[in-house]
Specification:
The chain has 230 residues and is mostly helical. The chain has eleven helices and no strands. It has helices spanning 18-42, 49-69, 79-85, 88-110, 117-121, 124-141, 145-151, 154-159, 162-176, 181-204, 209-229.
Length: 230
């Protein structure tokens, strides 16, 4: 006898796997909190320039370091690192959101909007932060599945520019003096790790780290040129 219930009986609702829910929760929580603090900042109730920079820096470190540490033999079997590495995309999106908030809040809280903005933007720390923010905005805009399908493999090349933005962000923190040593330590640690990774993987004959080191070097050179020019 044919099973006539196969097409009409309601199918049980399958629960969404945890690994799909957690990234969405991370992104949603960061977007919601960033939006709330931005509104409060625009209303003049709180200052979010420094907190947004801290949160963005911590999330950026969380998105970069675990996945790259796994490429080294000593950490390749760490379950905790693997769990963190699987969250690199939502952590990176969260970092981009907070860096955008940081830029908006910096202009709102520290710029005189009634005066000419050109001379205010033409300061070393501002230019360094602006260039870094543009990189993060490009990465943020291409973090969706639709954008990545449209770009094909090029989206991965674009996202490697984060290693170019890291030294610019570090230079921005040093020049502007707006961040405490913790954030500077995190940025410096990321740069030091890129050099360490290059040395370790070169000994093993593995590739990939050279790109990171070249981009960090290019970002460092760009930071020096901006500092000298301004």
């Amino acid at each position: 006898m044919p099973d006539t219930l196969g097409d009409t009986a309601p199918r049980p609702v399958q629960k969404e796997p945890e690994r799909f829910r957690t990234p969405r929760l991370i992104v949603a929580a960061n977007v919601a909190l960033a939006g709330l603090l931005t509104v409060l900042s625009l209303a003049g109730l709180v200052g979010v320039t420094d907190p947004s920079a801290y949160l963005g820096t911590v999330l950026l470190a969380g998105s970069l370091l675990p996945s790259n540490l796994l490429r080294l033999g000593w950490f390749s079997r760490s379950r905790r690192l693997r769990a963190l590495a699987r969250l690199r995309k939502p952590l990176g999106v969260g970092a981009g959101v907070w860096f955008v908030v940081h830029s908006v809040a910096s202009v709102w809280e520290h710029f005189d909007l009634s005066a000419a903005l050109g001379p205010q933007f033409a300061r070393t720390g501002i230019v360094l932060g602006l260039v870094a923010t543009l990189v993060f905005v490009c990465m943020l805009a291409t973090s969706t599945g639709r954008a990545q399908r449209a770009l094909g493999g090029n989206w991965k090349r674009l996202h490697r520019l984060v290693w170019f933005a890291v030294p610019l962000s570090l230079a921005h923190a040093l020049v502007s003096g707006g961040l405490e040593p913790l954030a500077i330590l995190l940025y410096g640690g990321i740069m030091a790790f890129a050099a360490f990774e290059y040395r370790a993987l070169t000994k093993r004959g593995a590739g990939g780290a050279r790109t990171h080191l070249v981009l960090v070097g290019a970002g460092t050179l760009a930071s020096a040129l901006i500092y000298v020019a301004l």
